[in-house]
Amino acid sequence: MSDTAPEIRHPQGPAGQTRAGQARAGESPAGESPADESHAGAAHAGPTRRPQRPSRNGPRFRMPRTVVALMLREMATSYGRSAGGYVWAVLEPVLGVALLSVLFSMALRSPGLGSNFPLFYATGYLPFAMFTDLANKTAASIRFSRPFLAYPSVTFLDALLARVVLNALTHVAVIAIVIGGIFLAYQLPGPVDMAGVFEALLLVALLGTGVGTLNCYLMNAFPVWERIWHILTRPLFLISGVIFLYDMMPVRAQDLLWYNPLIHCTGLMRRGFYATYEASYISQAYVVAIALVFLLAGLALIERNHQKLLERSCAGAASPRPAAFHDPGRDPGRDARHVLCRALAAQGRIGRRTRQARSHRPRREHEPIGSRPAGTDSAFASGHAQA
After folding, report:
1. For residue 251, how many other CB atoms are within 10 A of its CB?
2. Contacts of 139 (CB under 8 A, 6+ apart)
3. Do the beta carbons of residue 128 and residue 237 sit within 8 Å?
4. Number of other CB atoms surrounding residue 236 within 10 Å
5. Residues 209, 295: contact at Cβ < 8 Å?
6. Chain mean pLDDT for the chain
7. Distance CA 381, CA 146 (A)
8. How many CB atoms lie within 10 A of CB 107?
9. What is the 3-state secondary structure (H, E, C) of the chain?
10. Bridge-partner residues for 18, per DSSP?
11. Cα–Cα distance between 57 and 76 in angstroms, integer?
12. Which of 79-83, 147-151, 152-156, 243-247 ranks highest by mean pLDDT?
């Protein structure tokens, strides 16, 4: 048997070239045209696939789902799983308005506008309460949503937006209930300028969001600023037009109080309920400018230093961020779904069947006994005894 390998000869074409040489030269072997080759290749390649449409669960729907999950979590945390938390959200401003009405009705014959004390103080106290609560809740957004910010799909913007939307809608509902109750209880006549009222509430929400966003950075970067802020805002109740009118103050006081943006919001709110109140000092452009400056400055500072702020807020936490959270191949949509499922499970909507199924599942071969729910060890042992 010969050790030499048999020589492989390529079939030659009409010009003495092999098929390999014809392929290198760009010609089709055995007289085949390039068109025939393209048709043959298309036949072997199979049918062409149509471009798939983007899924509804794609990146464009990721942020709304994350915001909704954070809102559900805050609803379960702030107001509880029962209706008692929502009742207190309405009862607290009602008691505040009632206290102001009783105290000033004993010292004054009539309020600054009209003849109804509860309506006058409600139109000043409720916007002020909305601003303070919205600013404080927004300032604590990173601290409140710290466990969820470890997920790649949850950003600081989601945490800010969730708190702003939830608390703003809650206060709008509370204001509608309280003032509507006052109108029904006292049978108050007169039309209400709803456009002016919603404009005032929109300015209050924008101002509270701007101040809260800037404080969100300052309070996390400089913890002492939180105490300083609470001290500085204590006289804000007296200089924001809650218990008096801007027009009733001396001229020197008016020149200083005009720079307080809250006094423009309370004046606009009262102008919506009192048709005879002109409030010519109001400047919506000034309030919007102040709010946007605070908002943009806060967003820029948080965007630049949000990682440091998160690490600083997690300094006293239990454990560092797991390495799995830094995995670039991790599916962000899956993490967002986990956030939503946890928020829903906190309200008891899901998870009951999952917990029941886990409690009755058999133990795996290499699974530690302490990692399973109580009661499964005895069931597993009895099953082996019967076998």
Report:
1. 6
2. 212, 213, 215, 216, 219, 226
3. yes
4. 14
5. yes
6. 75
7. 42
8. 6
9. CCCCCCCCCCCECCCCCEHHHHHHHCCCHHHCCHHHHHHHHHHHHCCCCCCCCCCCCCHHHHHHHHHHHHHHHHHHHHCCCCCHHHHHHHHHHHHHHHHHHHHHHHHCCCCCCCCCHHHHHHHHHHHHHHHHHHHHHHHCHHHHCCCHHHCCCCCHHHHHHHHHHHHHHHHHHHHHHHHHHHHHHHCCCCCCCHHHHHHHHHHHHHHHHHHHHHHHHHHHHCCHHHHHHHHHCHHHHCCCCCCCCHHHCCHHHHHHHCCCHHHHHHHHHHHHHCCCCCCCCCCHHHHHHHHHHHHHHHHHHHHHHHHHHHHHHCCCCCCCCCHHHHCCCCCHHHHHHHHHHHHHHHCCCCCHHHHHHHHCCCCCCCCCHHHCCCCHHHHHHHHHHHC
10. 12
11. 25
12. 243-247
Token representation of residue 343: 């928020």
Query: What is the four-CA torsion angle of 182, 76, 214, 227, rounded to 10 degrees?
Result: 90
Structure tokens at 280: 């010519």
Contacts of 97 (CB under 8 A, 6+ apart): 118, 121, 122, 125, 126, 178
In 3D space, the residue among 290, 297, 273 whose CA is nearest the CA of residue 221 turns out to be 297
- Give the integer Cα–Cα distance in Å for 287 and 302: 22
What is d(CA 86, CA 77) in angstroms, rounded to the nearest whole number? 12
Two tokens, residue 13:
């074409």
- Asked if 249 and 238 touch (Cβ cutoff 8 Å), the reply is no
Q: Tokens representing 264?
A: 């423009």
pLDDT in tens, 83-101: 677 788 888 899 999 999 9
Residue 11: which residues within 8 A CB-CB, separation 6 or more?
18, 19
106-133 tens-digit pLDDT = 888 889 888 899 999 999 999 999 999 9
